[in-house]
Design goal:
The structure is a single chain. This protein is an alpha/beta fold. It has a 9-stranded mixed beta sheet, with helices on both faces. Helices cover 37% and strands 15% of the residues. Residues 1-5 and 328-338 have low confidence and may be disordered.
């Protein structure tokens, strides 16, 4: 008889559901130690409305219609909106066939949903943010105490020690809304982990992982096969490799398994000036010296190195279990405190 999981990490996912966001949804749905409390969409890979419908369609394919999906910020705080169709396709899911008869919440925004949940369950929730950070910034404006109400946040974004991918200096999620990122990094969270290109570009799926996923006949496995094929098609042209890194899932994995990474506590600022370096994530990497002026922002944990073998094994475990009807199901309402 399988072991009953009684305590789960309660996660709110904020995403701009394209290809690797979808892999994150599949992974989290397959984790027996995770309750996916809610999903909020944001502009980025696609429009916020499209992203919400993508998330709901993926969750439906995995049998997880219990998870509320809310439309979030449709544009950045201070610049025009941009999308990433060249990577993720016109619909964000590489035009794969998927049931799109889904419902999403439009009665409140994703930022309002996050604040309501945080107030209702103080100290219980964690955020995985794998798109532009507009929703999180708006939630901070609504509820300045949000960093104290949330147990921790893991952000896929930034390029502190490596080149960017949106520009030579800026990673895409940060470049899509630098002002929002600046607000989030300066907020003073209980725990904030920045999972940038510094580490995610070391997470390429290898032939062994690709073969293991191709052999799966589960709903999560079949969906992952299609998504990885589309993602790999882009990277085969851009990088000359018939594979893909798992950018967004890595942020979720490190939240659940911080032991798979190494971190430096740095104060991180975002370049907001108009020009070539806008959106760059600039860390104060100087060692502490007595009498040195305090950095302008509280330090956050910047992932600098990964133990890739267990991280990829963890990813595979989540993909295998997703959609099987066992792991990741919500706790009873009494346990949720609702």
């Amino acid at each position: 008889m399988p072991e009953t999981v009684t305590a789960r990490r309660r996660i709110v996912l904020d995403c701009d559901t394209g290809l690797d966001d979808t892999l994150t949804l599949i992974f989290l749905s397959g984790r027996p130690d995770v309750e996916l409390v809610a999903v909020g969409s944001v502009h980025g890979n696609v429009s916020a409305v499209q992203g919400a419908h993508n998330s709901a369609a993926v969750l439906k394919a995995l049998g997880r219609t219990d998870v509320p999906v809310t439309v979030g910020a449709r544009r950045p705080l201070a610049q025009p909106v941009q999308y990433s169709a060249k990577v993720h396709g016109s619909d964000g899911l590489g035009e794969i066939p998927i049931d799109r008869e889904v419902q999403v919440r439009t009665d409140i925004s994703a930022a309002e949903q996050l604040v309501q949940l945080a107030r209702r369950h103080p100290g219980e929730l964690e955020i995985v943010a794998i798109g532009p950070l507009t929703n999180i910034a708006l939630a901070l404006m609504i509820e300045p105490e949000l960093p104290n109400l949330i147990a921790g946040i893991s952000v896929m974004g930034g390029a502190v020690t490596v080149p960017g991918n949106n520009t030579p200096w800026a990673e895409s999620n940060i470049a899509h809304d630098p002002e929002a990122a600046s607000l989030v990094f300066s907020a003073g969270w209980r725990r904030c982990v920045l999972v940038g290109l510094d580490v995610t570009l070391t997470t390429w799926l290898r032939p062994t992982e690709l073969a293991a996923i191709d052999a799966l006949a589960t709903p999560g496995g079949r969906l992952a096969q299609q998504i990885i094929a589309k993602f790999s098609a882009y990277f085969s042209v851009a990088y000359g490799r018939q594979s893909c890194p798992i950018h967004d899932p890595t942020a979720a994995i490190l939240l659940l398994h911080p032991e798979y990474g190494e971190y430096s506590r740095w104060s991180v600022q975002v370049e907001l000036a108009r020009g070539l370096t806008r959106g760059a994530t600039v860390a104060d990497r100087r060692p502490f010296v007595a009498g040195k002026p305090a950095p302008p922002h509280p330090p956050i944990e910047v992932a600098t190195r990964l133990n890739v073998d267990p991280l990829l094994a963890c990813f595979l475990d989540g993909i295998r279990a997703a959609g099987t009807g066992q792991p990741g199901q919500p706790m009873e309402k009494e346990a949720r405190g609702e």
